[in-house]
Design brief:
mainly beta; nine-stranded mixed sheet
């Protein structure tokens, strides 16, 4: 989704610099740059389970039914998948890997603020061989129990295989749970199970399924999963990016990788504090100075704080170039 946030974020990145690399074990978990010029609006990110060090991504609306496998060691695209068996994608915003080794793609965006009567999820087997190929996908029709929503985050629980969608709404948004088994012939109704007060652009479950990380443009929230009823546990440390649209855990659960839109965009790491690996992951890294609801303790929203930071940068540059009085 193209917005003014891209330009604002870029200015802040230039002012403050990129986040420091994380020290982690999985290939690509120290961060990488997406080099494929076709990937100009990377809006989702998912760590492959079959191919360690490979990360699946896709463009936002308008690209077509394509998925890209990016090597976290080099940032190069090593395979392009063309999906068949689905209609023309409308606004693809998210990707996740299920415990069944299937890729789940969320065609769930609605830039008109929740006007589509339905959205779609596409499921396809993750290829065992990384090469350019055409893969047949299954299309699922999705509706929300309380009417249309705008969403950009789709997460598949790594133990139960259940699909969840997080609404993009900073005030009164929600987390929605899908049926235990998705139906390809009927409509799949997603029901609200928790409130999420964040402008969510993506989310990810920890590999052990015990934690949920949700990110926005300027911040994020971590939750304990709590048997499907998430409980806030802290504020995520989200790197400043031109337009932060994606997040995924590495396979070992030690690192969260954050991606952004734009050609040549960087995927940046943040360590998960106290992590003992994929089977014993702790809460994601966070800041004690921030509340666990996606807002700074002063009461300003995270997005407002980002805009204030940008204004400070602009004013600071103006002072630097101003000639001193004689």
């Amino acid at each position: 989704m193209r917005t003014f946030l891209g330009a604002a974020g870029a200015a802040v990145v230039l002012a403050f610099g990129a986040a420091a690399p994380a020290l982690a074990d999985d290939p690509g978990s120290d961060g990488f740059t997406i080099k494929d010029p076709r990937i100009a609006e990377s809006s989702g990110l998912a760590a492959s389970r079959l191919h360690p060090g490979i990360y699946w991504t896709h463009n936002d609306s308008g690209d077509g039914p394509y998925l890209y496998a990016v090597d976290g060691r080099t940032g190069e695209t090593v395979a392009t998948l063309t999906l068949t068996g689905v209609g023309a994608p409308r606004d693809v915003e998210a990707i996740s890997v299920g415990p069944d080794d299937n890729l789940y793609v969320g065609d769930i965006g609605d830039n008109l603020g929740g006007s589509w009567s339905h959205v779609w999820i596409y499921k396809l087997p993750e290829p065992k061989e990384l090469r350019d190929q055409t893969v047949r996908a299954t299309q699922f029709t999705v509706q929300y129990a309380n009417g249309p929503r705008n969403a950009e985050a789709l997460m598949v629980h790594p133990k139960t295989g259940r699909v969840y969608i997080a609404e993009k709404n900073e005030d009164g948004g929600g987390l929605y749970e899908g049926p235990a088994t998705l139906s390809a012939t009927g409509t799949n109704v997603f029901r609200r199970v928790a409130g999420i007060d964040l402008w969510v652009t993506d989310g990810a479950f920890s590999p052990d399924g015990r934690h949920l990380a949700l990110r926005g443009y300027f911040g994020g929230i971590s939750y304990t999963w709590n048997d499907g009823r998430p409980k806030r546990e802290g504020q995520l440390t989200v790197p400043v990016q031109p337009q932060g649209e994606s997040v995924t855990y590495t396979l070992d659960g030690k690192t969260l990788l954050y991606g952004s839109e734009g050609r040549g965009s960087a995927v940046q790491p943040e360590p998960v504090e106290g992590s003992g690996g994929g089977g014993d992951s702790k809460s994601p890294s966070g800041s004690g100075a921030q509340a666990g609801d996606g807002r700074i303790d002063t009461g300003f929203s995270a997005s407002a704080v980002g805009l204030v930071a940008l204004l400070i940068v602009v004013l600071g540059i103006g002072r630097l170039v101003r000639r001193p009085k004689k």
